[in-house]
Amino acid sequence: MTGISDTHHEVRSRLLDALRLDAPAAWTDDELLVNAGALEALGRVVDAHRVAVAGEVAERSRVELGDQRLSTRKGCRSAVELLERVTQVSGFEARRRVSLGAATRVRDGFAGEPGVARFPSVADALATGAVGADAAASIIRELDRTRPFADPARLAAAEQALVNEATGSGDGAPVRCTADELRVQAQAWAVFLDPDGAEPADERAMRRRGFRLGRTLRDGLIPVTGELLPEVAAKLTRLFDAHRSPRVGGGFQTDHDRARAAESGEDRSPDQQRHDVLAAIIDTAARSGEHPTIGGAAPTVLVSVRAADLTSGRGVAHADGIDTPISLRAARHMICTGGTQTVTFDDTGRILALGSPERCFTAHQRRAITLRDGGCIIPGCTIPAAWTEIHHVTPAADGGPTHPDNGVLLCWFHHRTIDTSGWIIRMARGVPHLRPPRWLDPTGTWRPTTKSPTRLADQHERPPRAPAA
Ligand SMILES: [Zn+2]
Question: CB–CB of 44/129 below 8 Å?
């Protein structure tokens, strides 16, 4: 082991001697480009070995080894985590190396016969530094999906053709293509290898269904991707359409619909509205109590925030399950909906005191408020009561009680934006009253609000009483 380790040290120190970071500034254009290519070739050799090592780590950490998995013995959940710890690369990079290493590793042969790698041509090209790791990954990712049903000989031919494209070898010696071009070609091969009719369309769809949440934030948002089965997409579309504002909801609109949309001042795009309906669906599902518990508790999201930050309005909060901080506004919203539990730490991080959970409306209170409000109380909003959250009109932090006289139904969006939207809510004798934003109603008139069918019927019998000031 020390022999190899010594070699690595020697190569590294020679490289550091031979290469200088300030050298490129002095090169001519052509020298610059030639050296860029030459350095890449050097990097490919190192990459090939990094991939091989990752494949071996994964092999020794395979699930069937149980307690004897290398990753388990070293206190990690998987080969990927072990690699991350040892090399300090990202989870994405560790996963890429592991899957590439597994696909190009020579497998044990049967009864002493020599083994072959799952992708032998890619393995050879990678090992000699003829293709880079990202090009190899493009080929393997696309072709591997077709393996269950593709003809093995055609699959092997596709693999060889793609390697030729990548290395500029073979018949006609094409210009070497980039990893991105290779991905496009590999996708074309995958379509060819996976012709329609190889299996019934619905079974293909069933196998390909998926829903993925991105791992990292892009411009403050988590990207989602995936492919839904048509019936799932249809149900989701119905839910979205049923609860989007009438102005953009599609279909025929009555004058009443248009008036309602104008009154609510709806200015969300259809995409934004679908997002907000999804938020409401998720909250409703989490609240239903019919979901598997996590450690005995309902699947709620824990939010931690410093009391001082919450008061001053400066700082950030953290939600478990995502690595990036969330805004204090988001934290306040989640606290208003989900209640709080105060945990006091000392300077060293030890827990000094644990408060009891509070500020959550009970199911009884929720039913009563639902009968009174009937749905999100903002005019023009079509989110039904079952999908709403209960908002503390006077915040709990300012002494507002968790009592029906201080709780109103708001949908996720109107709750999230209640501090900035211009809608002001106040309670008068236990009845919610609204003052619309100035741009919507310059008179600043307070109006009682409800969507409860019983109370609406009542209002038609007699005019609403003016609220006490
Ligand atoms: Zn609403």
Answer: yes
Distance 254 CA to ligand 1 centre (A): 20
Nearest-angstrom CA–CA distance, 165 and 160: 9
Provide the mean pLDDT of the chain.
Answer: 82
Amino acid type, 310: L
Q: How far is the CA of 434 from the centre of ligand 1 (A)?
A: 13
Residue 349 has pLDDT above 50, yes or no: yes
DSSP, residue by residue, 224-238:
EEEE--HHHHHHHHH
Q: Would you call 64 helix, strand, or coil by DSSP?
A: helix
Q: Predicted confidence band at 87 (pLDDT cuts at 50, 70, 90)? A: very high
Three-class SS state of 319: strand
Whether the predicted pLDDT of 320 surpasses 50? yes
Residue 396 Cα to ligand 1 midpoint, Å, equals 21
The bridge status of strand 431-435 relative to strand 447-448 is antiparallel
User: What is the CA(344)–ligand 1 centre distance, in A?
Assistant: 35
Crossing angle for the helix pair 133-144 and 179-193, to the nearest 10 degrees: 20
Q: In the chain, where are the structural domains located? A: 18-195, 301-360, 363-461
- Tell me, what amino acid is at 455? R
C-alpha 2 to ligand 1 mean position (Å):
67
User: 3-state SS string over 440-456?
Assistant: CCCCCCCEECCCCHHHH
Cα–ligand 1 centroid distance for 338 (angstroms): 18
Interatomic CA distance for residues 419 and 422, integer angstroms: 7
Q: What is the mean pLDDT of residues 269-276?
A: 87
What's the pLDDT at 399? Answer: 81
CA–centroid distance, residue 243 to ligand 1 (Å): 10
Measured in angstroms, how far is the CA atom of residue 286 from the centroid of ligand 1?
19
Q: What's the 410 CA to ligand 1 centre distance in angstroms?
A: 5
